[in-house]
Predict the structure.
Amino acid sequence: MSMTGSVGGTDRRGVRELGAEEKVGWDAVPQGVVLTSFDGTSENSALIKPEDRVYSDFNSYTATVASWRIIKPVYNRDICIDCQNCWVWCPDTSIISRDKQMLGIDYDHCKGCGVCVEVCPTNPKSLLMFGENMDNDEALAAWPEKKKKAK
Ligand code: SF4
Ligand code: SF4
């Protein structure tokens, strides 16, 4: 399980692998059943940080889709200006940001679409896509230099 920065998440983040053998089709769910997102009360859950919420097994937070990915974004803290563009645009809420500071990638839920890299405005970019098997430290060591503006 991948955790990033100081936001470790709960033990329940990404505990289940959403492989084909584990999928439960909607035809297996009885009509009228309520699939709750939280164990216990959901009161004020919008005001609680994700890592502090008690998600149920029916919530996607407890499932990981990491194996769907063949390329991954790697984050370079040294260049990031905390503009939050990646956080706004990520279609899977897989950018971890707290108090307007970018902390990294939630690799349990990121699907490797590359949108965060596209919208990153720094030079060079603070997020780049690498092969899934690339070690993050190696990726950081291979980071490109700043591009000079054409005259
Ligand atoms: S690659 Fe796609 S899913 Fe993953 S963090 Fe970037 S925008 Fe989100
Ligand atoms: S878009 Fe780039 S510069 Fe902006 S917060 Fe994300 S990684 Fe940092």
About this structure: Strands lie at 16-17, 63-64, 71-75, 95-98, 101-105, 127-131. The two ends are 47 Å apart (CA to CA). The CA atoms of residues 11 and 120 lie 30 Å apart.
